[in-house]
Design goal:
Length: 139
């Protein structure tokens, strides 16, 4: 594997995350994005996906619910189970964050010479394949 490529891509991802303004913590933002990808989930699944304890996730979900970003709902398969789902405002937040990140990447790409930009465009199928297989593994 090419360590330089790994370092460069990791550095770029870090730059994008740190440079995009946010109103929520990274854990809250990633929880909303997880809900967008996977649909309503139990708090235990959300805690596992975020790498935090169930009590911490319960507190986070309560805050997100108070701000209208998520909604608790009964599981249609088992009414005793509560699921957390993305509210309309939460979906709008995720879409806005994605748009901000995309716009930053486009700004950075716009600074490149044409030949370097063309090389990145040529790598687009590989980048999409990495993204797709990673999303499948996370789902």
């Amino acid at each position: 594997m090419n360590l330089e490529l790994g370092d460069a891509l990791y550095g770029l991802a870090t730059l994008i995350v740190r440079s995009t303004p946010r109103e929520l913590s990274l854990t809250a933002s990633s929880t909303l994005a997880f809900l967008e990808r996977s649909g309503p989930q139990r708090i235990t699944a959300l805690a596992e996906s975020a790498g935090i304890t169930q009590p911490s996730m319960t507190a986070l979900v309560t805050r997100l619910e108070e701000t209208g970003l998520v909604e608790r709902q009964a599981d249609p398969m088992d009414g005793r189970v509560v699921l957390v789902g993305l509210a309309d405002d939460g979906a709008a937040y995720v879409a806005g964050r994605r748009r901000q990140g995309r716009d930053l990447v486009l700004e950075l790409l716009g600074r490149l010479p044409e030949d370097e930009l063309a090389a990145l465009v040529a790598a687009l199928p590989a980048i999409r394949r990495i993204s797709a297989t990673t999303q499948e593994a996370l789902a």
